Amino acid sequence: MPTALITGITGQDGLYLAELLLAKGYEVHGVIRGQNNPRRELVERLVPDVRLHNGDLTDLSSLMRALRDSEPDEVYNLGAVSFVAYSWENAFVTSDVTGLGVLNILEAVRLHAGDDPGRIRFYQASSSEMFGKVQQVPQSEGTLLWPRSPYGVSKVYGHYMTINYRESYGMHASSGILFNHESPRRGEEFVTRKVSKAVAKIKLGMQDEIVMGNLDARRDWGFAGDYVEAMWRMLQQPEGDDYVISTGETHSIEELLTVAFTHVGITDWRSHVRQDPRFMRPAEVDLLIGDATKARTKLGWEPKVAFEELVTMMVDADVAALEAGW
Ligand code: NDP
Ligand code: GDR
Predict the structure, then answer these.
(1) What CATH number did the domain enclosing 127 receive?
(2) What are the alphabetically sorted keywords of the record (predicted)?
(3) Considering just the CA atoms, what is the radius of gyration of the chain in Å?
């Protein structure tokens, strides 16, 4: 039975990946930080078979201990300060966790693996935010990186450090350049979930308006459940590599609002939406659309859930949760 260690186990992707690996028969371990992490209970409820280890990406020795106590065949580094807007307000912390944290976990894996650096397979959660001010449409593995936020810059550092450890030490290290992926488990700070929850509340008469930022930005949105499958497939390849994971479709925030509101029978949605500079970013990523040909060809991976299905799934889940009093 293979063993996997996941950082970021309390996050959206950590939970889906743990479910996937447990279903495949893996022994799954997770790194959890903080003396009283409020999301520990969620992990224990949704994936009770996951064994948790205290640790933090900024603390190398805690990562070494987690590796020693779990002895993994595969390590998935999903932990990060992941909210782009927050990264301007906390640029140092973001760089420390999302950037230097990758160096810490790579170094911990290298030291733990000893004479055979390839024996522990490593996945780094890279991001389409690295493309930032896009230099090519659509974006693929070879597109020049031009990050637009402290978060994006930190992810570029982690991405190149992963490639460097692969090339320097012969590690089986892969970088998944994942475009936005969402689900009913998405954090409420991100735009899809902010919209799905607000639309559900508006439908149920619990709220009247939603305050938004830039409605013109375009994203390539997929379903998180599909995307964690791609992470696993990368680590089953004979060698580490880099892969873009995306749907190949792009939609604006306006289209997101239209689909979400229309789904609950509201067509004049503009009367419920107000824009506020508070939610505008110092530098915006205007357009993302990925070319996942390499993943399709080499990994046999394809997204299964399309944009409308994703948005309506999220709205329905929020309506059901609110009706149930959650
Ligand atoms: P989430 O924000 O839902 O989860 C982030 C995770 O990182 C949480 O488990 C959080 O734990 C953990 N974390 C934060 N700080 C630290 C730290 N100092 N040490 C260890 N763990 C820490 O993100 P997602 O699940 O959406 O994304 C997973 C990864 O994929 C992230 O690296 C993200 O940047 C990247 N990514 C995400 C995409 C998306 O669209 N979802 C697209 C491309 C990349 P805690 O509970 O302690 O806060
Ligand atoms: P993003 O996701 O920055 O792409 O990063 P987010 O959902 O936060 O923003 C997407 C776009 O929506 C615009 N927007 C708003 N965003 C938020 N959060 N709140 C608003 O009110 C709002 N109004 C408009 C934003 O300006 C932006 O253009 C996500 C994260 O998961 C990263 O960790 C990951 O790497 C990338 O996706 C790929």
Answers:
(1) 3.40.50.720
(2) Lyase, NADP
(3) 19
